[in-house]
Every structure is written in structure tokens, then in C-alpha cells.
Design goal:
The protein has three domains: 200 residues, Clc chloride channel (Orthogonal Bundle), CATH 1.10.3080.10; 243 residues, Clc chloride channel, CATH 1.10.3080; 60 residues, no CATH class. Helix content is 56%, strand content 5%. It has a three-stranded mixed β-sheet with strand order 7-8-9. It has a two-stranded antiparallel ribbon with strand order 1-2. The chain has a two-stranded antiparallel ribbon with strand order 3-4. Strand 3 and strand 4 form a beta hairpin. Helix 3 packs parallel to helix 6, helix 3 packs parallel to helix 10 and helix 8 runs parallel beside helix 10. The longest helix has 54 residues. The radius of gyration is 28 Å and the shape is globular. Keywords: CBS domain, Membrane, Repeat, Transmembrane, Transmembrane helix. InterPro entries: CIC-7, Cl-channel/antiporter, Cl-channel_core, ClC. It is found in: Membrane.
């Protein structure tokens, strides 16, 4: 088999080394394409060079095909173009002779042992995901606590003596320093770890093989990077990356080996196929959702189902739910030990919204139209957020594609975020009394009177998770309308600018924080319409606004509804949250796609949606497929097969076996074969 990997010619075809296939074109044009491989005259093998891209809306002419051979170095961005670096997962088992012989050798007991192994692996996935979530939570709490205490002491010191500019420089320096390291490891070590990773995992569950998305190196960079990003004060959250982290853990544990470490533990070898691997990755993603939000039901079944996994197996569904429960319990147990309350399982997830059980939090029937209107507002704001982020990402693809520039941009955003927060706190006159039972973690007095604190600092001078809880549960009068309005406006644009940087970060918590701010503002404005009864509790409307904003950005409905219900611990809010999310999705889809779908398009990933486009009924296969196609005849020379497999320009996993119809150019596609299967057959022949 060593001969197969060499670039030699075994067949009677002429030497085509000078016409190597086209390399994968990148949107930033960092690699230059090479000409398409031409078809040899009289050859029985149809060669595809590498189809550069496919545009479904324009007819490809001969002149366009000729111009594609001399492709320019800079490729203009076009979301209708599909990248060549993606392949599909071999999800269906190749039922050839070798596979059937292997299955026949297994006894009933062996199959039962395999089923037990699947349960053990899912339990291990949940346990490790919970440990990773616990590590992230503790690290962020400790490092952020040190940073905010240092800055607070500095601000208190220079408030009366003057020189608050030193405090500003200290804040900017600490934020930029943390974000710099978080961006360096992403930009220079593992770029696939940037962002939340949810679009990539969504593509993987859809059946697309995304390069390096489930590597151990990706996991390490993702975990360390998200800690630096959150501690660095960016408008990000640590919950989204947990989904990617759980998926990477699942892929590594289920395969019993590590590609990054080049270590094979010789276990779970039966599961080293894409069929099993994708099922375990579904369990890992679900465990990540469960650890992030303390929502095993939404994580165990609904999230993975909504994001692309197909649960045709009831036992698979139970295993995924089992992994989610283990993940939640593991995180809960170790956090209880960390808080010196062993056995008190009151921290089910990284984000805890608190309980909405007071009488003021109850809603009435006449408030349902108000909730639906807030859903429409959230859908519109979400569409505007996605629109801005879409064009920002295109700008980054074209002009900020070098790693050094990506690090500089991340540091710039960190510095601007700290500066804007400081200015907003400095000029804020919203002072609130600091009672003995206050819940503010780092209250800043600044220019307020003794016994008071700056309300704007509660929103900015804190981790995003604590800011969300304060907007949900702080009593009425904690924030005034001007504070909430200014915070919503500034944080909206900061979060939009931040998502897409070369850092590991999620968009869940920033979306919740933006929505909670303008939702609480709506509650205050509604309560001001009457002076008799406080029927519009600000915390209740903050919850509805948070759901509307998050739904308007990510466009998830079923799983997000259950996540919000499980995170709040109040099932009575199921109906209004569902109506709000449905309204936000309908309104948002009218203007713009969801954020994850837009980033999938920007990555030129061949994502297959659940339903075909409405205008695709008239399309034929030849209009969307690459041409010419690398095909093999039913009876083929060994040398021809070796050349096809060893061709580095053709890295596809499947090749159609065709039958030529005499006297006609039509080709009948008989069956598709797998590259690995051909290698096994050739090994036995050679």
C-alpha cells in the first residue's frame, strides 16, 4: 500500500504531473489556484480537476470555464460559492464483502458488549464535559475577580485624589493583555477554535466533514481561549463554546485515539467510522448544552435534533439524554465542593438565571400581546445585528485575514470596550442606595454619595452572567430608563463588533444581556403608565426581552424554549417564551437569516438544509455538479485505480462506478464507492 501514496503512474495514461488539480481556493486568496486537469483523449477515466466553485444561479459558459483556469490570487467573496476543502461524512456503512465478513464474525455477546460500550462512552463524555465546564467556570471567576478587585481599588484610590485616567489605562491594559493571549493561540495555533464553534458543529451533525473541528488541539485552544476572552472583558459568553468542547471530547473518547498526540490507545476500534462518530458527537454537543445552561432535556434531545442530528434510534436518544444528565450532575457536584457546600446541588449550569417564583413575576392574559410585540422587536433587532455582523465578517475575510492583524483587531476591540465602559460609568448619574442585602459583586461608588453605588457599573463592571442575573432579579428602581437605554445601545454594537473576532467566544450571553436590558426598559416604561398597581414587573419583561433578542439572533425555537424554561425553573413561562421565540424567528427570517446560518454561508460550507429551496424543483444534477467527474468503470485496471487514489488533487472519498452506454454520451451512475474500501481491495490484489 505504500505504492498508492506515491505520485507515480501505474496506468497507460501519459504523465499528467504538470497538470495537477486545482487547490482549494480560500476566500482571502492566500493560496493561488492551479489549472484544471484536462481529460486525456481516449481515457476511460473521467478526471475532475477540482471544481473551483458552483454558482446555482448563473449558467456556466465555456468562456467562464476557461477564465477559471487562470484564477486571480484575490478571490472576491461570494456566498453562493462552495469551498472545495469540505467533504461529506461517510455516514452510511459500506456494505462490501470485507464489512459483511467482519459482521459475521461477531457473536450475540459481542454485540451486547458493544451496546454496553456505547453507554459507557456516553457516560464518560458527560463526565469529562462537566469537568471542563467546572474548570472554565472556576478559572473565569477567579481571574475576573482578581482583575475587578484590582481595578476597583485603583478607582477608589484615584476618585478623590484625581488621576482616574490611570485607572482607565489599567483597565485597558488588563483587558488587552488577556485578549491578546486568547487571540494569539487562536490565530496562530488553531484558527478553527475561533467563535463559539456552533456553526461548525452544526455542519458536522449535518454530515459535512469540517477539517480539524474535533481535534484535541482545538479543544485546548477553545478552553484556554474562552477563559482569556471572558476575563478580558469582551462582550462574549463562555456557554456557546461548551457545545464545541463537548463535541471534541466526544469525538476523541469514542475513537480511542488522538490525532494531535499521535497516540492510539487500541480501544473502541469498532466505533472508528463516521456513523458511530457522528452519533457520539451529538451526545457531546448535547452534554455541552446541558453543562452550559443546566438544561439536560433541551441539551439531551432538542438541541442536537434541531441542529442537524437525526435520531432514528430510540436507544441513541436515551444515550444522549444520559450523557446530558451526567454532565449536569458532574458540574453541579464539583461546583458544590468549590463553594464549600458539598452535596448541595444548586448550580446546574454555567449560567443560572435564578428562580422566577414571586407573585410579581406572574403574568396575565392581557400581557400576551405585549410579549408578542416584544418578540417582533427582538426579531427586528436580531436581523439588524446579523446584518451588521455579516458585513463586518466579509470585511474581515477580505482585509483582516493575517494572524497578526487578527490579534491587533481583538486587542483594539478589548481596549475600546474598556474605554466605552469607563466613560459610561464616569458620566452616569444613576446612583442607587447600597442596602445591607445588596447582590452587587463589585459595587463602585465613584461620584455617588456615601452609601450609594453607580448603577451603570453594575451592568458594565461585571461578568456578563452576573449582569444578566442582576437585570432579572434586582428590585424595581435599581436602574433608571436612561441607564438601560444607553447600555443597550452601546453593548449592542460592542457585541456585534466582537462576534467574529479571532477569539473563542459565544454569543448566547451577550444576546441575553442586550435583550434583558431593553426588556427591563420596556417593563419600566409600561409600569410608568399607571401609578396604582405594579403589574409590569421589570424582571419579568427582562426575561421576555432576553428570549426575544436571543431568538432574533440565533433563530432557534424548540430547544431555546426548553433551555429558557429549564434555566428559569418556572414552567408557567413556557407559553409566552414559545410565542416570543416564534415571533422573533418569523420577523427575523423576513429580513435576514440566523447568525449561525450566515456564518456557514460565509465559510462556503456545502450545508444541506432540511428542505430544498422552493425554486429548486426545476434543477437537474448536471447543473449543480462539478464537471468532468472522476469516474471508474465496472472493470478497471489496477494501475488506473492506483493513479486515481494517489492523485493528491482529488481528495474526495467517493468515486462513481459507471456504465458507458454504447453510441451515446449518457453515463449511468451505478454506485458510489469509498476510497478506503478501494484501498483494501487493492491491498489484497497487489
Amino acid at each position: 500500500m505504500a505504492n498508492i501514496t506515491k505520485k507515480v503512474s501505474w496506468s497507460s495514461r501519459g504523465d499528467e504531473s504538470g497538470a495537477a488539480g486545482e487547490e482549494t481556493p480560500l476566500l482571502n486568496g492566500s493560496e493561488q489556484s492551479r489549472p484544471l486537469r484536462q481529460m486525456s483523449s481516449g481515457s476511460t477515466v473521467f478526471q475532475i480537476g477540482r471544481l473551483s466553485t458552483v454558482d446555482l444561479d448563473e449558467e456556466i459558459t465555456t468562456e467562464e470555464q476557461d477564465s477559471a483556469r487562470g484564477r486571480p490570487k484575490e478571490i472576491p467573496h461570494n456566498e453562493k460559492l462552495l469551498s472545495l476543502k469540505f467533504e461529506s461524512l461517510d455516514y452510511d456503512n459500506i456494505e462490501n464483502q470485507l464489512f459483511l465478513e467482519e459482521e459475521r464474525r461477531m457473536s450475540f455477546v459481542a454485540f451486547r458488549c458493544l451496546e454496553i460500550s456505547r453507554w459507557v462512552i456516553c457516560g464518560l463524555i458527560g463526565f469529562l464535559t462537566g469537568l471542563i465546564a467546572c474548570f472554565i467556570d472556576i478559572a473565569v471567576e477567579q481571574l475576573a475577580g482578581l482583575k475587578y478587585k484590582l481595578i476597583k481599588e485603583n478607582i477608589v484610590k484615584f476618585t478623590e485624589a484625581g488621576g482616574l485616567s490611570i485607572s482607565l489605562l489599567l483597565w485597558v491594559a488588563l483587558n488587552s493583555f488577556c485578549v491578546m493571549w486568547g487571540s494569539i493561540i487562536v490565530a496562530f495555533i488553531e484558527p478553527i477554535a475561533a467563535g463559539s464553534g456552533i456553526p461548525q458543529i452544526k455542519c458536522f451533525l449535518n454530515g459535512v466533514k469540517v477539517p480539524r473541528v474535533v481535534r484535541l488541539k482545538t479543544l485546548v485552544v477553545k478552553v484556554v481561549g474562552v477563559i482569556f476572552s471572558v476575563v478580558g472583558g469582551l462582550a462574549v459568553g463562555k456557554e456557546g463554546p461548551m457545545i464545541h468542547s463537548g463535541a471534541v471530547l466526544a469525538a476523541g473518547v469514542s475513537q480511542g485515539r488522538s490525532t494531535s498526540l499521535k497516540k492510539d490507545f487500541k480501544i473502541f476500534e469498532y466505533f472508528r467510522r463516521d456513523t458511530e462518530k457522528r452519533d457520539f458527537v451529538s451526545a457531546g454537543a448535547a452534554a455541552g448544552v446541558s453543562a452550559a445552561f443546566g438544561a439536560p432535556v433541551a441539551g439531551g434531545v432538542l438541541f442536537s435534533l434541531e441542529e442537524g442530528a437525526s435520531f432514528w434510534n430510540q436507544m441513541l436518544t436515551w444515550r444522549i439524554f444520559f450523557a446530558s444528565m451526567i454532565s449536569t450532575f458532574t458540574l453541579n457536584f464539583f461546583l458544590s465542593i468549590y463553594h464549600n457546600k458539598p452535596g448541595e446541588l444548586s448550580n446546574p449550569g454555567l449560567i443560572n438565571f435564578g428562580r422566577f417564583e414571586s407573585e410579581a413575576m406572574e403574568y396575565n392574559l392581557y400581557e400576551i400581546p405585549l410579549f408578542i410585540a416584544m418578540g417582533a422587536i427582538g426579531g427586528g433587532l436580531g436581523a439588524f445585528f446579523n446584518f451588521l455582523n455579516y458585513w463586518l465578517t466579509i470585511f474581515r475575510i477580505r482585509y483582516v485575514h493575517r494572524p497578526c492583524l487578527q490579534v491587533m483587531e481583538a486587542m483594539l476591540v478589548a481596549a475600546v470596550t474598556a474605554t466605552v465602559a469607563f466613560i459610561m460609568i464616569y458620566f452616569s448619574t444613576d446612583c442607587q442606595p447600597l442596602g445591607p442585602d445588596h447582590t452587587e459583586e463589585y459595587p463602585l461608588q465613584l461620584f455617588c454619595a456615601d452609601g450609594e453605588y453607580n448603577s451603570m457599573a453594575t451592568a458594565f463592571f461585571n461578568t456578563p452572567e452576573r449582569s444578566v442575573r442582576s437585570l432579572f432579579h434586582n428590585p424595581t428602581g435599581t436602574y433608571n430608563s436612561l441607564t438601560l437605554g444607553l447600555f443597550t445601545l452601546t453593548y449592542f454594537f460592542l457585541a456585534c463588533w466582537t462576534y467574529g473576532l479571532a477569539v473563542s467566544a459565544g454569543v448566547f450571553i451577550p444576546s441575553l444581556l442586550i435583550g434583558a436590558a431593553w426588556g427591563r426598559l420596556c417593563g419600566i416604561l409600561l409600569a410608568s403608565t399607571t401609578s396604582t398597581v405594579m403589574w409590569a414587573d421589570p424582571g419579568k419583561y427582562a426575561l421576555i426581552g432576553a428570549a426575544a433578542q436571543l431568538g432574533g439572533i440565533v433563530r432557534m425555537t424548540l430547544s431555546l424554549t426548553v433551555i429558557m424554561v429549564e434555566a428559569t425553573g418556572n414552567v408557567t413561562y413556557g407559553l409566552p417564551i414559545m410565542l416570543v421565540l416564534m415571533t422573533a424567528k418569523i420577523v427575523g427570517d423576513y429580513f435576514q437569516e440566523g447568525l449561525y446560518d450566515l456564518h456557514i454561508k460565509l465559510g462556503s460550507v456545502p450545508f444541506l438544509h432540511w428542505e430544498a429551496p422552493a425554486t429548486s424543483h426545476w434543477l437537474t444534477a448536471r447543473e449543480v455538479m462539478s464537471s468532468p467527474v472522476t469516474c471508474l468503470n465496472r472493470i478497471e485496471k489496477v494501475g488506473t485505480i492506483v493513479d486515481t487514489l494517489s492523485n493528491t488533487s482529488t481528495n474526495h472519498n467517493g468515486f462513481p462506478v459507471v456504465v458507458q452506454v454504447s453510441g451515446d454520451d449518457e453515463v449511468l451512475f451505478d454506485l458510489a464507492t469509498d476510497k478506503n474500501a478501494w484501498c483494501k481491495i487493492l491491498h489484497s490484489c497487489i
